[in-house]
Structures are given as C-alpha cells and as structure tokens.
Amino acid sequence: MSSEHNGLPLPARYWAILTIALAISMAVLDGAIANVALPAIAHDLHASPAASIWVVNAYQLATTVSLLAFASLGDIYGYRRIYQIGLAVFTVTSVFCALSDSLMTLTIARILQGFGASALMSVNTALVRLIYPRQQLGRGMAINSLVVALSSAAGPTIAAGILSVASWQWLFAINLPLGVLAFVIAMKALPGNAHQGTHGFDLKSALLNAATFGLLIFSIDGLGHNANKPLVLAMLLVSLAVGYVFVRRQLTLAAPMLPVDLLRIPVFALSICTSICSFSAQMLAMVSLPFYLQETLNFSATQTGLLLTPWPLAIMVTAPLAGRLVEKKYSPGMLGGIGLALFSAGLLLLGLLPANPTHLDIIWRMALCGVGFGFFQSPNNFAILSSAPAHRSGGASGMLGTARLVGQTVGASLVALMFGLFGQNGTRSSLLIAAVFAICAAGVSFMRMAGGVNATPATKAG
What we know:
Radius of gyration: 21 Å
Number of strands: 0
Helix content: over 70%
Low-confidence stretches: 454-462
Largest sheet: none
Shape: globular
Order of helices and strands: HHHHHHHHHHHHHHHHHHHHH
Number of helices: 21
C-alpha cells in the first residue's frame, strides 16, 4: 500500500512532525513579529515609518505570489525536496536579515526569506498526509493547525518578549539554530512522495499567478490605507484581467497550478471559502485589539500580550480535540460550523465590551474566540486535504496556504480602513465586521453537511 495510507511508523512519525512544526512556526512567526519591531528597525536604519512597512510587505508579498508555484513543484519533484530547499533558503536568508545594515538590504533579504517560507508552507500539509496513516490524519492536521494558529496569534507577544531583552536583529538570528535543527531532522525523518507528477513546470502560469495575486494584494492594501484611488482601481482592474487569463489557462491543463480541478469538488471549494473568511476575521481582531487595549484602556504592552494569550491557549486545548473528533467520523462541516459560530459570538462580545471592562471581561471573551477558532481549523484543513486525490496533495496544500494569506491580507487592510473611517471606534467596528465574516463562514461550513457534498473521490477511495 502507498505511504499516504500507512504513514510513518513510530517514532519516525514524531520526528517528522517535529521538523514540520519547527519550520512552519518560524515561517508564520516571521510574518507576524516584524510588525512589533518596525519602530526600532526604522530608527536603527534611519528609515521613515512609511518606508519601513516594506519590511513586512516584502515578506508577505513574496510568500503569497509564489505559494501555488512551489506547491506545483512539490507535485512534480517531491514535497520533501521542496520543503528541504525552502528550509535551507529560509534559514540562510534569516541570517542575511539579521546582518542587514540598510532598509534596502533588509527588504531584499525579506523577499528571499519570503520565498523560503513559501516553499515550506506550500507543501507542509501534503507532507502531513504522508506522515500520518489515513485513520489518524485528523490528529496530524490538528497539530499542524495548532502550530499555525498559535504562531499567528502569539507572534506579537513573542516579539515583544525578545525585544525586551535584545535588539531587533535577534528576531531573525534566532532562526539559525532552529532552522539548522529542523533541517537535520528533515534530512533523516521526512518521507518521499508516493506519487510524483509527470508534467513539467508551467512558467507562464507561475508568472500569471504572481501578477494576479501581487496586484490584488497591492490593491486591497491600497484600499485599506486610502491610497491614490485611481491607481488602486487601475491595479484592481489589471489584477482581474490577468486573473481571467490565468484561470482560462488553468482550465486547459491536466494538473493546473491554480487547482481549478479541485475547486470543482464541492467540499474543497466550500472549505477554502471558510478558510479565507475565518482568517480575515482572525486578522481583523488580532490587528485591531492591541490598539484598543493600549490606547483606549491604557494597558502596557506586557499587559496587552497577557490579555491576548487566552486566545492561543484555548486553541491548544480545542484543536487536538477537534482533530480526534473528525477521526471518529464527525462531519468537518458540522464541527467547523459549531466552531465558527462560537468564534463569531466571541468576536461580537469583544466588540460589545463595556466602557471600562475588567481583565476577566476581556479574558473569557478571548478564550471563547480561541475555543471557536481551534474547533474549526483542524476539521476544515482535514476536509481540504482529504477531499483532494493523493497526487494533487501539493495543489491542495498550496491552496490552503494561499487562502490563509489572502484572508489575513484582507483582514489587515480592513482594519486600516476601519480606523480611517471611524477613528477611535476602529477596533469596535473591526470586531463587529469580524463577527460577520465568522458567522458567514459558519453558514458556508454547515453547507458542507448537505447530501453528497462530503462524498468526494478522495474520501470514497479511502
């Protein structure tokens, strides 16, 4: 039988998931921690605050525009090989980031680091499918979801802790020992593909993909930051035009880079929609809440970090539970819908906080958000990966990562728009919009329970 059904034996399975967890936590954290360090980076490199934003944007842009391309390369050349190359690039460029002496060199290093992170994130869930036997795939996805969610939510707190005792360069330098450790484990522990594609790499699709998502991100970000409206509109229209050509091309390919073949599977398409909406909601909350806690309630950065902590702690408890439940054949649509409904309730309650809330008022609402998000994400990722045929695991993994990054980009841009429109009430508006995103995602998730929607080729084969 193929390895994606049998998985790895113990203890090799533990070592393999350890390298995945180490690398993905570094990649996701490096997308979040730089926000906290921007003032220090701008001061140290004699750059303006506006120019220093490129330290964040360069990484996110490079990651998003190349995810599907690296996922395609994984299908062709093997997920392990692409993962190892990505890990090596990410680790080496982290050192370049730490040694940068100007904003230009740091931005270039962050672009290269983003490509390394993209290679890691494009195939990580495809590797989880190879590491765990089919009957235990839920817990493998739970661990992966837990690492991503914790890294996203805890990034600002970890960055604040490092900056309290060291300079900003250590935010990147710390990746060297962790990256070397993860690479050594990866060389020994990761499995190879059971299936590899026979098609070649489609460079034209890769360029169309990069142009589509790159222009889309710039236009969304521009709308959020009230940039030059004619320019933003022009970028959006060009993005849509290039995207149309891109999709038309994908429809003619047997193994498309943008997995339009997988989007024809109802449960896959619905799960991608819920992922985009949920990560938009998460980012709306996580970006806006620190402003409210520090500027409106006058909490310190340390207090803010502690008050945000119940969210990732609750995910730690609920994500493994949700993974076990989906293994016991509970519907991912039902589990995800319940989780998203709880998530929406938590966001709504945060948006309706009293004028002078106590710590407890904030903590239990944060915990409710974490419970809901943790209960949703593992089953949703399981549905995305298991609904795709084994030989298209790379495409499914790349699409999962792309959905997360697009959702986070939309959420962060909406926060900027809300603060521009409503000033001091920007956080409350952001949280209420986040609650709407989450409840819409819950509705889409419950749609997956409709007759026949969960019956996909992949699940039937199992």
